[in-house]
Amino acid sequence: MLIQPDDLSVRQMYAYLVGMITPRPIAWVSTVGPTGVTNLAPFSFFNGVSAKPAALCFSAVNNRDGRPKDTIRNIEATGQFVVNVVPAAMVEIMNQTSFEYPSDQSEIDATGIEVLPSQLVRPPRVKASPIQIECQLIQVVKIGEGPAAGNLVVGQIVLAHIDDSVLNAAGDIDPALVDTVGRMGASDYCWTRQRFALPRPVGSA
Asked: How far apart are CA 201 and CA 74, in angstroms?
């Protein structure tokens, strides 16, 4: 099978894209708008990009009408956001926040999710998330225009909250204790409960 993106509809290309790139981690991003309305939404185009400075990125595609999502508009207005890690126990409530609520309605209020204040940024943190990452905006890169065009957000990590319950005896994050989920294609998710170790090769060729 060969696919040429220009020959496909936006919906078709999106379906192939999320099916080809799997599994994807989920950034559950909290923001605050200029009027003080809080927003919480999940994004599976998410990864780390740098250790010095410590930075991560996620991308949010535009709505079907071509407008950027509330998350992007809030970040552009305030320069701040929090990425909350999604454990398996929270996947249902996370999915509820993917519903497109009106801009003046908070997903946090609508779903009853308990939050905590952040220390260095204004957006709140999801209390039950075992890892919450406070970020300051570095850059938003616009990729295309109109429906499904991307908005790549690069943020500097200014503070990370890691619950002691997900640390092993050495003080490292234990993936079994975090128990994150991954995003697949269509409406599918996956567990991260089956893992294997594969040390990198050492020496020179």
From this structure: 44
d(CA 64, CA 184): 21
Strand 189-191 relative to strand 181-183, pairing:
antiparallel
pLDDT digits (tens, 9 = 90+) for 101-139: 999 999 999 999 999 999 999 999 999 999 999 999 999
Q: Which amino acid belongs to residue 46?
A: F
Angstrom CA distances, 140 to 68, 77, 93, 197, stand at 12, 11, 27, 35
Using the Cα atoms of residue 63, residue 66, residue 69 and residue 70 in order, give the sign of their dihedral. Answer: negative
The mean pLDDT value of the chain amounts to 96
CA dist., res. 110 & res. 129, Å (int): 18
Closest CA to 101 of 70, 55, 59: 70
pLDDT digits (tens, 9 = 90+) for 68-84: 999 999 999 999 999 99
pTM: 0.94
Residue 182, C-beta contacts closer than 8 angstroms, at least 6 positions apart: 22, 23, 24, 25, 26, 189, 190, 191, 192
CB 74 within 8 A of CB 67: no
